[in-house]
Design brief:
The protein is α/β, with parallel strands linked by helices. 47% of the residues lie in helices and 15% in strands. It has 6 helices and 5 strands, in the order βαβαβαβαβαα. Strands 2-1-3-5-4 form a 5-stranded parallel β-sheet, with helices on both faces. The protein starts with a strand and ends with a helix. 38% of the residues are buried. The protein binds D-ribose (RB5). D-ribose (RB5) binds next to α3.
């Protein structure tokens, strides 16, 4: 189960990603917005809560650049949000960082690339091993 959220800057791209998820049969919860002007930290909070509660496995967050919403998500304890504009980053943030949120910029990338990024992000498993130690160190930074 995937939680997906956007602000007004990411709304058009979210519609494309939602259509893609539906076509692939991926279940998701749409946490808004519906095109109206909203503040991206509020959407980040509402969407990430679904992951932290265990209701969803991962989040997809979209704003105009992907930057604001990723900054907000990464302030939330337990979230590892990765802003991706390419396929390689999406793959390796899963393999090495165990990212639990994918952030994209709706005014930056097109729907075709975004959907490929979504696919690789959702299909790639965390590699563990030495990377688990590093991810644990990220978690420890939350305590300081
Ligand atoms: C909204 O206009 C825009 O600032 C927002 O979508 C995002 O790009 C912020 O980082």
């Amino acid at each position: 189960m995937i939680a997906i959220g956007c602000d007004h800057g990411g709304y058009e791209l979210k519609l494309e990603v939602v259509k893609h998820l539906e076509e692939k049969g991926v279940q998701f919860i749409d946490c808004g917005c519906n095109g109206e002007a909203v503040d991206y930290p509020d959407v980040a909070e509402a969407t990430c809560k679904k992951v932290l509660s265990g209701e969803c496995d991962k989040a997809i967050l979209i704003c105009g650049t992907g930057i604001g919403i990723s900054m907000a998500a990464n302030k939330i304890k337990g979230m590892r949000a990765a802003l991706c504009g390419d396929w390689y980053s999406a793959k390796y943030t899963r393999l090495h960082n165990d990212a639990n949120a994918l952030c994209m910029g709706g005014r930056v990338i097109g729907a075709g690339l975004a959907c490929e990024i979504v696919d690789v992000f959702l299909e790639t498993e965390f590699e563990g091993g030495r990377h688990a130690r590093r991810v644990e160190k990220i978690t420890k930074l939350e305590e300081n």
